[in-house]
Amino acid sequence: MVICFRSANAVDPAIERAIADAVDNGCLDPGAARRLIRAEAPLLLLLLEAASAVRERRSGRTITYSRKVFLPLTNLCRDQCAYCTFVRRPSDPRAHTMTPEEILAVAEAGRAAGCKEALFSLGDKPELRYVSYRHWLAARGYSRTIEYLRDMCALVLERTGLLPHANPGVMSEEDLALLRPVTASMGLMLESTSERLLERGGPHRGCPDKVPAVRLATLEAAGRLRVPFTTGILIGIGETLEERVEALYAIRELQDRYGHIQEVIVQNFRRKPDIRMRDWPEPTLLDMLRTLAVARLILGTTTAVQAPPNLMPDGYEAYLLAGLDDWGGISPVTRDYINPERAWPHLRELKARTEASGFQLRERLAVYPDFIRRGQEFLDPAIRSRVAALVDPGGLVPQEKELW
Ligand code: SF4
User: For the chain, N or C: smaller number of CB within 10 Å?
Assistant: First the structure.
C-alpha cells in the first residue's frame, strides 16, 4: 500500500521508512514505536496518517459499538488497586453481590432497550480474602465466584437471550473452559507489563492478580481454548512510555500465536476523589492519540482498537484520527460502574459525532464479525446459533434493527 505523507518534510528518513513498513507489512519496528510514542509535529501527523491508513484497511469507514447492560456481579475483590473506585470491603454498606433476581431484572431491562450484550464485570476472587463472602457463596451452593458467575451467565443467556461477556479477573484454563459454553467472549485487561507497579507505593501494591505474568498466562490460556478475547492497556498509572509499548508488543505476540484477540482497549486513567491516586496526573488527549496510533501500528489489522468515549468526553472523536475502530460497550440502561462519575454518551450523540467525522456507526455483538465467521472454532454450538440469529451477512446487527 502506498500512502502519501504530506507532512513528511522534516522527518528522519529512517523513522519515515519504519512507518511506511508498518503500513505495508502490518507491524511496527519496536525502536520506531519507542520514538513515535513521544512524537511531536510533524512526526505526529505522519503517525496519525499511518494509523488511519491501517484502520481504513481493516474497517473502512465503519466504527462499531456494542449495546450492552453492565452487571457488576460483586464489588468485593481480593486486590486493592490504587486507582479503583469500584471495589468495596464487606463492612462497607455499599458492598454488594447481585442476586439472580437482581441480575435478571437488569438483563431484562436491557433486552427491552434493545441490548444484545450482558457484560459481567466483578472483583477478582473475593472468596480468597473474605470469610463472610465465602459464607454467602456457600449458602447458595458455591465455593468459588467463577461457579456462581457461570450459572448467572447461563441464566441470562437462557432467560433473556443477551450474550454474556465475562470479565472476572485472572482465570485458569479450567475457569475459561467452565465459562466458554455460556459466554460469547471474555476479557481481561493486561493493563501493563511493568513489575515496578507492584512495588511499595505503586498502584498494584498488594494485588496478586496484577502480576503481569499471571495476566499474560490467562490471555495465553484463552488462546489455547479458542476464546474470542478482549484485552488492553491502562495508561497513565505510573508506567513509562517504554513499558506501555512493551505491553502492546506482548499483546501482539500472543495475537500472532493464537489469533484470538478481538479487541485491544486503550484506557486512560481518570482521577476520582475517593481513590489513593486522587492527585495523580491524568493522560492528556494528545497522549491518548499517540498511544492509540502506536497501538494501531503495532497491532496492524489483526484486531480492533478501542477507547472509551466517556473517559474523554470533550474530544473523543479525535481518536478517529488515530486508528480507533470501536467505541466499546455503551449502555442505554446502566451506568459505567468502573467510572461512575463519567456517564456514557447518549447513543444518538455518539452516532452524530462519529458521522460528523466522516464515519458510520454500526452495532456489533459481544463477539466480532471475524470470530462469528470462524464460529466453528471460536463459539460453542448453543452460542453460535444465537449469534447467527442476530447478525447480517457481515456479522453486524442489521441496520434496520439498530435503535438510536
Ligand atoms: S482488580 Fe479490579 S476490582 Fe479489584 S481492586 Fe483492582 S481494579 Fe478494582
Answer: N
